[in-house]
Amino acid sequence: MRIRRLKLSGFKSFVEPSELRIEPGLTGIVGPNGCGKSNLLEAIRWAMGESSAKSMRGGGMEDVIFAGTTSRPARDFAEVAILVDRAPTGDGQDGEIEIVRRIERGAGSAYRLNGRDVRAKDVALLFADAATGAHSPALVSQGRIAAVIAAKPTERRQMLEEAAGIAGLHVRRKDAEQKLRATETNLNRLDELLADME
Ligand code: ATP
């Protein structure tokens, strides 16, 4: 999976709609301190489903919305769109996908995949299956190297699992186990009803 384009509007310091094309090869972002370089990486993580406001350097998730300056009023929403190229998998699921996340003050986040409303979970699964996502070790923010060195064995295992692309399988396993438990409860209930009727 390769990120080809990033579009932001009202996200942190990117108040005006901005678009960045990520061409093949190495891309560097340079600029003075505080110009918004880290905000761009955070925008990618956010669109991939980041749910921790703290890891977005905010107190609450609405802190990603442009907060205003002395000369510009605050915005009511923030929107980030990433266009990704899926590697051919042979299952017909390749091609371009645009993931859009939008947050409105007082209304929370909403996601769209190629224009269709989806749940946060669908976005998380899409990236987990592609061995990437908001917590991918491929996204290295400031201070992250020190965190990897100090990580506990279980945390390191999580990183390896994400890199190996099996994080999505864990989510599916949890879902399947929940369905299994619900079915077992239904079967037990059915047995009780049948016993009552006999
Ligand atoms: P450095 O090189 O120091 O790491 P940087 O280029 O990575 O800096 P960022 O940390 O991405 O810069 O951007 C910080 C800037 O973003 C600050 O000026 C901060 O005021 C601004 N900013 C963050 N959140 C918001 C927000 N919600 N509304 C407006 N501006 C914001």
Automatic annotation (TrEMBL):
<protein>
    <recommendedName>
        <fullName>Chromosome partition protein Smc</fullName>
    </recommendedName>
</protein>
<comment type="similarity">
    <text>Belongs to the SMC family.</text>
</comment>
<comment type="function">
    <text>Required for chromosome condensation and partitioning.</text>
</comment>
<comment type="subunit">
    <text>Homodimer.</text>
</comment>
<feature type="binding site">
    <location>
        <begin position="32"/>
        <end position="39"/>
    </location>
    <ligand>
        <name>ATP</name>
    </ligand>
</feature>
